[in-house]
Write a structure and sequence with these properties.
alpha+beta; FAD/NAD(P)-binding domain; 2 domains; seven-stranded mixed β-sheet; four-stranded antiparallel β-sheet; 10 helices; 19 strands; about 20% strand; globular; FAD dependent oxidoreductase; iron; metal-binding; oxidoreductase activity
Length: about 425
């Protein structure tokens, strides 16, 4: 291990991978990527979240000319495809994803520290992080850095550094529910009824007291295998993903919901008679936890009005998609046909820590705007923007907040991350 790194990235999900790779490619000499699991990918692998939600303008069909997110995300898609791990540009193989991310990070020359948890932040003064304290098999120790990028998904580094954070919706603080994804194999798809019929059967089971999941319907997707169905349909409400006890309770409750759903499918839904429970995610999926207070707070109005900012570092058109934080029901609000919105660089900049960038779902936004930007393609683009900005700031000897956003955008365009005029 080096004594000090130019850039330290905490969290090795798609966001963190993109941040670390972009930083290294943009000229940072020493870049360290810290990940708590023994593999990269975050929600795409540890959470088994699948498929990719839309990375196109709010316009169907989803064609190349309507694509919004490129750059490192596009590279990931292409590498997945080469190895047979991508279908319809959205469905991917989580095991192949692990391999693809390993290769991209190693090829870039990023140093990786797996099985490592960031558990503390040391500041030299009120506004500067000097080092992070990590815990792993080697012990508990400090690693110094010049600029830090928080890609933990929960704004852990930002929170420990004293950045103000918000959680959930304004009225009660409840965040979107957590979900444990799981898969059922050996399904006879030729005998599966329609989604409407499956939901009719599900509502009957709910009425009989056989289902205790508060979700109002059954949400499932295709996988790479024709006989395997992916379920993103459990719902754990009113639990805080940043509270260890509540997160533990959520994991326990979610696994019960997974098996309850499987028993329902096997008993009542044609095509599932000979199926088996193939796998559940290593960890529960977290839609929402902390959101930092940054130099700009993205709002629902910005999203739905398709606002483009002078310092937009990526673009998105995914719906406002709010799973009820306290029970059943899901609110969907779509952008105008063909429209999209920008996410300003200022949303990645905390208001009170100079050498920290935050990327991924904890960026500065409202609860409603967060429900749109939280999806994996957008988070990957935010990671690339943060890594590029950090490297440029190192080169210029300035803080990230002092960086000319137009120079950053020009670099992102040169790197192929932004292809809009």
């Amino acid at each position: 291990m080096k004594q000090c790194y130019d850039i330290i990235v905490a969290g090795g999900g798609l966001t963190g991978v993109a941040a670390a790779v972009a930083a290294k490619r943009s000229g940072a000499e020493n870049v360290l990527l810290i990940e708590r699991y023994g593999f990269l990918g975050g929600m795409a692998t540890a959470g088994l979240v699948n498929p990719f939600m839309s990375y196109f303008k709010a316009k169907r069909p989803y064609t190349a000319e309507n694509q919004l997110i490129f750059g490192i995300f596009q590279e990931i898609l292409e590498e997945l495809d080469k190895l047979g791990g991508l279908k319809n540009r959205t469905v991917f193989d989580a095991e192949i994803m692990k391999l693809v991310l390993n290769r991209i990070v190693q090829k870039a020359g990023v140093e990786i520290l797996l099985h490592t948890f960031v558990e503390g932040v040391i500041k030299s003064d009120a506004n500067i992080i000097e080092s992070v304290r990590v815990a792993n098999k080697s012990g508990v120790y400090e690693i110094k850095g010049k600029i830090f990028i928080d890609c933990t998904g929960d704004a852990d580094v930002a929170y420990m550094a004293g950045v103000p954070c918000r959680k959930g919706r304004d009225e009660d603080g409840f965040a979107q529910p957590m979900t444990m994804c799981f898969r059922v194999a050996n399904v006879d798809r030729s005998r599966m009824p329609s989604r409407d019929e499956i939901n009719r059967l599900y509502k009957g089971a709910v009425a009989r007291g056989e289902i205790h999941n508060p979700r109002e319907n059954v949400l499932f997707f295709d996988t790479m295998q024709p006989d395997v169905i992916h379920f993103n349909t459990t719902r754990i409400v009113m639990k805080d993903a940043t509270d260890a006890e509540q997160l533990t309770q959520a994991e326990l409750e979610a696994r019960e919901q997974c098996w309850e759903m499987f028993y329902f499918l096997k008993k009542y839904v044609p095509g599932f008679e000979n199926s088996y429970f193939q796998v559940s995610a290593p960890q529960i999926g977290v839609r929402e936890s902390r959101r930092i207070v940054g130099k700009y707070v993205l709002t629902q109005e910005d999203v739905l009005n398709g606002r483009k900012f002078e310092d937009s570092v990526c673009y998105c058109a995914y719906n406002v998609d709010i799973h009820n934080p306290a029970g059943s029901g899901t609110v969907i609000k779509s952008l105008t046909e063909g429209d999209y919105y920008g996410i300003p660089y200022r949303c990645l900049l905390p208001i009170n820590v100079d050498n920290l960038l935050v990327a991924g779902r904890p960026i500065s936004s409202t609860h409603e705007a967060h429900s749109s930007l939280r999806v994996m393609p957008t988070c990957t683009a935010l990671g690339q923007a943060a890594g590029t900005a950090a490297a440029m700031a190192i080169k210029e000897g300035i803080w990230p907040s002092e960086l000319d956003a137009q120079k950053l955008i020009m670099q992102l365009k040169a790197d192929g991350a932004i292809r809009l005029q």
